[in-house]
Each structure stands twice: as structure tokens, then as C-alpha cells.
């Protein structure tokens, strides 16, 4: 479904991605782990067209999207729940969800909204509440729900557990599992919480200073001594 080939992305003269190769097959959950500053968010932003690859190629569902605009990529079926949630704080929960539905078929709005409320019942309870007054966990649910309202076939999740209490983290990862299992939605998950991410993922990649250094199944990476030392046992990459 998604193929990233030899992608180099720069911020000015700084090379953030240094020839990244990665693929995500239909129906998979793929985890991308790495330390702060490794380039994980940059890769997602490059896939979305927010940052532009200077070299390399990105293909989605058989079509090249390397140079496409972000709104066109969303219309193709790619949605992103960004790091830091970035909801619209002055809008209500319902208004935030409507914003996510702008590129979707309006005839399926009610169906999609009901599916989001079934996945996150708390959002239904808070439907008329302003987004900025929600708890951190509720805002993360809203960010994911807003992405789902665009009817994506590929969901990009950037640090969904960041800053959340352990119980809420468990709820968020269970929701991701349900999205994949019940809807067969393909997920590319960027996470610093390597333990949760690799337990959930079918496959994973390790990104270090803009380069993929390791790949394997989620279980293989969980059991890898280098991954354990750097990401699972209190170490730092």
C-alpha cells in the first residue's frame, strides 16, 4: 500500500532523512521507533506532503505522491493524527470531527460519526464541549477520531501515547488494535513507547538519525538485544 524509497528530506541545509526505505502492506500495523530527533515525525510529514522529499520516491496505492499537495494526498486516503494532537481548541468536539470529514463522502457522515463515537464513547459524551477543555487523553481520542472522519485507508499516528497516563495509553492502543482488526485499516505508528508499539505491530522499523538501521516483526524487535538496550530497558539510543 505504501512504499518509501530512498527518501531524503531537508530542513534548509540540515538533512533530516538520509535515504529512508520503508513499506507498509495493506492491513498491517507497522511501528516506527526511535529516539527524539531521529526523524520519525519528519518521515510522516514527508508522506503527507507537509515536508517535501528532495530525493527519493513515495508511492501510495500504486500512485506516486512524492510531490503532491497534502489535501490531494488526504483525498487519496491518507490521514494523519499529528504529534501533540493539534485539535482546534475553540471548536467543539463535534466541530472538530466535522473538520476531519471535509474530504469524505457527505452521505456517509452520520455513519462515520457513529463509528467514531462507538470507538470513543467519551467523545459522544463531550460532543458539545470545546476541544481545549478536554483532558489530554480525550484530546488524543479526538485527534484520532478527526483523522478517521476522512475515511482513510492508511492511518498515520504520530506519538499517540505522548504525555498520557498509563491507563489512558492502554485505552489508546486498544483503540488502534480495534481500528486495524475490525476495519482492516492499515496503520503506520510512530512511537517512543517501543514496548507498546512493538507488541501491537505486525512489523517494525528502527530509525536512528534519519536512517533505518533495523527492521523485523514486532516480536523479533522486542527480543533483539540492541533494541532492548536502547529502547526497552531504560537505555537511550
From TrEMBL:
GO terms for molecular function: ATP binding; ATP hydrolysis activity; branched-chain amino acid transmembrane transporter activity. Gene3D superfamilies: P-loop containing nucleotide triphosphate hydrolases (3.40.50.300). Keywords: Amino-acid transport, ATP-binding, Nucleotide-binding, Transport. Transmembrane segments: none annotated. It holds the Pfam family ABC_tran. PROSITE patterns: ABC_TRANSPORTER_1, ABC_TRANSPORTER_2. One of its GO terms (biological process) is L-amino acid transport. InterPro entries: AAA+_ATPase, ABC_branched_ATPase_LivF/BraG, ABC_transporter-like_ATP-bd, ABC_transporter-like_CS, BCAA_Transport_ATP-bd_LivF, P-loop_NTPase. Residues 2-234 form the ABC transporter domain. PANTHER family: HIGH-AFFINITY BRANCHED-CHAIN AMINO ACID TRANSPORT ATP-BINDING PROTEIN LIVF (PTHR43820:SF4). Belongs to the ABC transporter superfamily. This is ABC transporter ATP-binding protein. It comes from Thalassobaculum fulvum.
Amino acid at each position: 500500500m505504501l512504499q518509501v524509497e530512498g527518501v531524503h528530506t531537508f530542513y534548509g541545509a540540515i538533512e533530516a532523512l538520509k535515504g529512508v526505505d520503508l513499506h507498509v502492506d495493506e492491513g498491517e500495523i507497522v511501528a516506527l521507533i526511535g529516539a527524539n530527533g531521529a526523524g520519525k515525525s519528519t518521515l510522516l510529514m514527508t508522506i503527507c506532503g507537509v515536508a517535501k522529499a528532495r530525493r527519493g520516491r513515495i508511492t501510495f496505492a500504486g500512485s506516486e505522491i512524492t510531490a503532491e499537495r497534502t489535501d490531494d494526498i488526504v483525498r487519496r486516503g491518507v490521514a494523519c493524527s499529528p504529534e501533540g494532537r493539534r485539535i482546534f481548541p475553540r471548536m467543539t468536539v463535534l466541530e472538530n470531527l466535522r473538520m476531519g470529514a471535509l474530504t469524505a463522502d457527505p452521505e456517509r457522515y452520520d455513519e462515520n460519526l457513529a463509528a467514531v463515537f462507538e470507538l470513543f464513547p467519551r467523545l459522544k459524551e463531550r460532543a458539545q464541549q470545546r476541544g481545549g477543555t478536554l483532558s489530554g487523553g480525550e484530546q488524543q481520542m479526538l485527534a484520532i477520531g478527526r483523522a478517521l472522519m476522512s475515511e482513510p485507508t492508511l492511518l498515520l499516528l504520530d506519538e499517540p501515547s505522548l504525555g498520557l497516563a498509563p491507563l489512558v495509553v492502554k485505552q489508546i492502543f486498544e483503540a488502534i488494535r480495534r481500528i486495524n482488526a475490525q476495519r482492516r485499516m492499515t496503520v503506520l505508528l510512530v512511537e517512543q513507547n517501543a514496548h507498546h508499539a512493538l507488541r501491537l505491530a505486525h512489523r517494525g522499523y528502527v530509525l536512528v538519525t534519519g536512517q533505518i538501521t533495523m527492521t523485523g516483526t514486532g516480536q523479533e524487535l522486542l527480543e533483539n538485544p540492541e533494541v532492548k538496550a536502547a529502547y526497552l530497558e531504560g537505555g537511550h539510543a
